[in-house]
Amino acid sequence: MIYLKHTLDWFQFPSLVIDLFSFIVLFLIGLVSLKYYKLNKNKKSLYLSISFSFIALSFLFKLLTNVAMFYDDLINPQIGIQTLQIIREYNIFSNLTFTIFAFFNLIGLYLLYKLYQGKQTSSNIFLMSYFILISTYFSNSNYYIFHLTSLIFLISISAFYWKKYSENLFINTKLLALSFSIISASQIFFIFTTFGKLFYLAGEIIQLGGYALLLLIITHIQKNGKKKI
């Protein structure tokens, strides 16, 4: 899994702030989508709400993982020998929260992917579910598997929006395509985190740009009314 130890010391707290910002943006998108579903009963809006809510919830568990480490390393740097029991409890907690983060994140991305792929067969859904479970299971020992799986979903979602933009030329569609493309790029840097701490820093900053763009889109929609995307 990715711990805060994989980034530069001075960037540990900003990294937490970035993840909190991402959670807030995703939560707002889920909330706004639910609002539009209640108004128009469009199942697409409900699907969007569920998808983004899963991804938002995943970031909450990522924050729990990293806040625990931040507190242990910086807020409470007591000198002494930790007992084996404390170490085991911390490892169990961090492994569990990261596993839930990976699972919820992949579920959310898959639901977004599925939303734009049309009706899928039962066998296809079964295979994708198996793919997500396997990716989640191995993510703790090989974190890059999670980011590689996320990258595949994000590229597919980005490609859909770019294709749709070429057909309708709506600005919201273009911004969505661009934001998911930026988030996709961040996953590439996360994959190579163990090769250098700057990769994690770059991944977080790029990811921040993607979610900031999503916030711009949701603000624009709220201000001007729902536009076709």
What does this structure look like?
By secondary structure, the chain is mainly α. It has one domain (4-224). It contains 7 helices and no strands. Helix 1 packs antiparallel against helix 2 (43-75) and helix 3 (84-115) runs antiparallel to helix 4.
Describe this protein with a few key phrases.
229 residues; mainly alpha; 82% helix
| Helix-strand topology string | HHHHHHH
- Low-pLDDT sequence parts: none
Shape: globular
The total beta strand count reads 0
Work out the helicity level.
Answer: over 70%
Count of helical stretches: 7
Structure at a glance:
This protein is mainly α and 229 residues long. The protein has seven helices and no strands.
How are the secondary structure elements laid out?
Layout: H1 12-40, H2 43-75, H3 84-115, H4 122-139, H5 143-168, H6 171-191, H7 197-224
